[in-house]
Amino acid sequence: MENELFFKGKFGIERETLRVDKDLRLSQTPHPFTDTANITRDFCENQIELITSVCSSVQETISELEKLDRTVRDTLDKSGEIIWMYSNPPHIASEDDIPVANFTGRHSEKRRYREQLEKRYGKRLMLFSGIHFNFSFDDGYLHTLYKGDDFSAWRDSFYLRLYKQVSFHSWLPLLLTAASPIYDRSLDEDGAAGAVLGKYSSVRSSERGYWNSFVPILRFGSLADFVESVKEYVDNGSLFSASELYLPVRLKPKGVNHIDNFAGGVSHIELRMFDLNPTEDLGIDANDLEFAHLLIMYLSCQPDLDFTPERQVQAVKNHQNAALYNLDGVTIDGVPILEKASEILDSMEEFFRSNTDAVGIIRYEKDKLKNRLCERIKVCG
Q1: Does the pTM exceed 0.85?
Q2: According to the model, what pLDDT value does residue 380 have?
Q3: What CATH number does residue 12 fall under?
C-alpha cells in the first residue's frame, strides 16, 4: 500500500449492446459502421461492441467510452435506431431476427467461427450483452516485487496466480452488479411475449447463460502448462478456439486473442461478469469499475491459491449461484453468500484503510450489500 505504483495500471472496457428500431425490435439493417479497433460487432449483425483504447485510469476509460457512445448514438439517430441498454435482449420473433455478423474479405474467418457457435449454442445465447473490464498492473510496480533475472516468466506466473484468485472470487462483483432479472418471454419460446421476472438477477451469468457444456479444467504450473491445457480442449474438438472458453475471467495475450500469441506472455486480465446497468447512460457505474480494480489489487496480495479441479468446478457453481435472485441457502465455503461478501468487503476496507478514495468505493459497495441483506431479513434499521 505504500508503493505509489500499486494503483497505476492499464485499463480498458468492452461494451456490447444491441441495435433496435423504433418499435424496440432487433434492427434488421446492416451494421452501420466500418469495423475499427473501437467500434465493431461481436456475434450478430445487429450488435455493437465498443472497445476503448488502453487508458491510464478508470475515469479516462469512462471518458473514452462516452465519446464512442456519443458517436454511435448520433449515427443511429439518423436512421431512427437506438441502443438497447439491457443485458437481456428485447422481443425475438424468431432466430431469423438474429443475423450472424457479416464479416467479409480478410475477416471472413470470423463469420465462419460464429456460424460454428450458432450450431453449437443457438443464436439466442449470443444476444446476451455486457461489460468486460480489462486491467494490467504497471510493469514498474511489478519490477519492485521481483529482483531476479527472468522478469517475463515471473510476470506470467504473477498473472496466473492472480487469475486463480479472481476466478475463485468472480461471484463477488457479479453479486454487486447483477442487473438483469427481467426478460422477454420470447427468450424461451418463439412467438411468446410478455415480461418475465425469473429466478435470476443476471440471466447471462446464471446456469442458463454463457457457459460451455462442460467445466474446462485448466493447469497453472506455468504459462506454457496453462496454454497447453486450453489447447487440449481445442485439439479434441471440445472448443473451436480459446475464444470459446466461456468463463467469467480470462487471461489475454497481446494483440488478437489467439492461443499462440501467449508466446509473447500475458498482456492483461479480463473480468467478463458485468451486466449492462440500465440506470447508467453508458451502461456501467464508474464506482463498480473502481471496485473491480481494488478487488484485483487486493487479491493480488493474497496467498497463492491451490486451484484444484474441484475448486475450479466450485468456482463456476459459486458464480452461477450468485446470479440467483433469491439467495436463501446459497453459501460460499459454508458461509451464507451475503455474509461472505460482507467479510471480504470488511477485509478490503482494512487493507485500503490509508486510502480515503478506496475506502469510499468499498463503502459504496457495502451499502448495496446492506440493501440486499435488509431485503433478505425484511428489516432495515
Answers
A1: yes
A2: 44
A3: 3.30.590.20
Q: Is 61 inside a domain boundary?
A: yes
3 with 141: CB under 8 angstroms?
A: yes
Please, what is the angle between helix 286-300 and helix 337-351, to 10°? 80
Q: What is the pLDDT of residues 71-120, one digit of tens each?
A: 999 999 999 999 999 999 999 999 999 999 988 888 888 889 898 998 99
Position 372 in a domain: no
9-20 and 82-84 beta bridge pairing = antiparallel
Q: What's the total number of domains in the chain? A: 1
- The three-state secondary structure class of 77 is helix
- Strand-pair category, 249-253 with 266-275: antiparallel
**Contact between 17 and 24 (Cβ < 8 Å):** no
Range(s) of the domain holding residue 60: 4-325
The H-assigned helical ranges of 79-196 are 108-121, 139-145, 151-168, 171-177
If you search the block for the grid coordinates 511489478, which residue do you land on? 142
Among 13, 121, 119, which residue's Cα sits nearest to residue 69? 13
Residue 281: count other Cβ atoms within 10 Å of its Cβ.
11
